[in-house]
Amino acid sequence: MRFFLDPHGCAKNQVDAELLHGILLSQGWEETAHPEEADLVLVNSCAFIEEAKTESIEAVLAARASCPGAKILLTGCLSQRYGAALRELLPEADGFFGNGDLSRLPEVLAALFSADARKTGSAPVLVPPQEGVCCGARPKRFSFPRSAYVKLTEGCSNFCSFCAIPVIRGPLRSRTPEAVAAECAALVAEGVFELNLVGQDLAAFGTETLEVKPWENGFTGVSPLCGLLTRLAALPGDFRIRLLYLHPDHFPLDILPVMAADRRFLPYFDLPFQSGDEDLLRKMNRKGNAARYSALLDSIRRAFSSGPYGQAAVRTTFITGFPGETDGAFAHTQAFLSESRFLWAGVFCYSREEDTAAFPMKPAVPKKKAAERREQLLRIQEDITAQELARFIGQEITVLVEEPIPPAEDEDGGGPRLAIGRAWFQAPEVDGSVVLCDEPDSADAAGIPLEPGSVVRAKVLRVCGADLEAAVLHPRGENC
């Protein structure tokens, strides 16, 4: 029996897909790269916003059209959120399985391929409750070589008014520091160079059991996230750690000296500010404002100004068209974006999601207006990103190679080699890349491996949009 897995959604969803993949292999299934050859097609879905739901449903429809003989199982957030309702709404799928307990996949597969299911045509639905954090073997990772995601938490208890994650994934649950450290150590032993720590809000890691949270008055001691990073800093090996998704209202400042003291922690921070207007932030159920957020950025940047990287890289996101966003509120966001000088910023139009606190909020902002505001912010950020990237011109950077660029059809292979990779200030999938080429003045450049997973030193030559062009100089040494 062969299966094909079609993953959608965020990095946390990717970890789930890798776990599903491992469970199938352990059950004796064989993977195929060709869905039309599969007996089972899994669409691991996303349901965060309307666009993601549409993409997942279209993937099911496409799978049914191209794989008429296969069983199609819709897994992930869409099944978790809508459960049995999808049985009537999406007859193209043969079964539905949520993400509350991935270890129960064999149960739904048994029902899916049972004689009773074939006789009645009734699609099985299994939506386990959200408990704990799903872990297990991931024999195949869907990242580029030597890069991996490590999930620290599941769910979220922040209840931002626009966000459906607590509805889908439930309240915050954290893994133990020991379990996280053991997984990281095992990945490094396998040769992983880049560990990307993910969770809906890493700043809240381990806080669900605390009576007083690290961001509240009266808290004493070390934040759980700082404790975890201290444990990871004790691991031997040559690797890099990147933290993704830190809620700015909860940022534990005590992680900064731990990170600054160990170059293996990348000074890269993903802080979703969402707006620069205080009134709008309150409607989003957020506690900050532009002044507090600017002070946080100053603290982060000061912590790394004299370190080996010389600076910190900050990514953020904004929402346009949130209910009640006036021209004045949007102007505050524009000003905050312009003044903050983020290296990277994503902008999303508000998606009205049922079962969220923002769902009934008025007045609604027309979709066209939200889209226009999104484009305005993106134009501002495009200029800032180009200016911030220009600072790297002439510098040597370490690059993790992701994939080679094949020569053009009219070339004989004698030209310079090209490859795509990422530097410390570029997270997987969401940021720009580094386009690598041979250094014309280096006689050794041609002998430097540019295979996926190799790590090289390169000199930045120019900025090309959101990307950099850099010339390979030499393989990276232990201290680079």
Write structural notes for this entry.
This protein has 480 residues and is α/β, with parallel strands linked by helices. Helices cover 31% and strands 21% of the residues. It has helices at residues 11-26, 50-66, 77-82, 85-89, 105-112, 115-120, 165-169, 177-189, 224-233, 255-260, 278-283, 290-304, 327-340, 367-390; strands spanning 2-7, 30-31, 40-45, 71-76, 95-97, 125-126, 147-151, 153-154, 173-174, 194-198, 240-243, 268-270, 313-320, 344-349, 396-405, 418-422, 434-438, 455-464, 467-475. The strands form five sheets. Strands 2-1-3-4-5-6 form a six-stranded parallel β-sheet, sandwiched between helices. Strand 18 (455-464) and strand 19 (467-475) form a beta hairpin. Helix 8 packs parallel to helix 9 and helix 13 runs parallel beside helix 14 (367-390).
What distinguishing features does this structure have?
single chain; six-stranded parallel sheet; five-stranded mixed barrel
Topology:
Blueprint: E1 2-7, H1 11-26, E2 30-31, E3 40-45, H2 50-66, E4 71-76, H3 77-82, H4 85-89, E5 95-97, H5 105-112, H6 115-120, E6 125-126, E7 147-151, E8 153-154, H7 165-169, E9 173-174, H8 177-189, E10 194-198, H9 224-233, E11 240-243, H10 255-260, E12 268-270, H11 278-283, H12 290-304, E13 313-320, H13 327-340, E14 344-349, H14 367-390, E15 396-405, E16 418-422, E17 434-438, E18 455-464, E19 467-475
Parallel strand pairs: 1-2, 1-3, 3-4, 4-5, 5-6, 7-10, 10-11, 12-13, 13-14, 17-19
Antiparallel strand pairs: 8-9, 15-16, 15-18, 16-17, 18-19
Helix pairs in contact: 8-9, 13-14
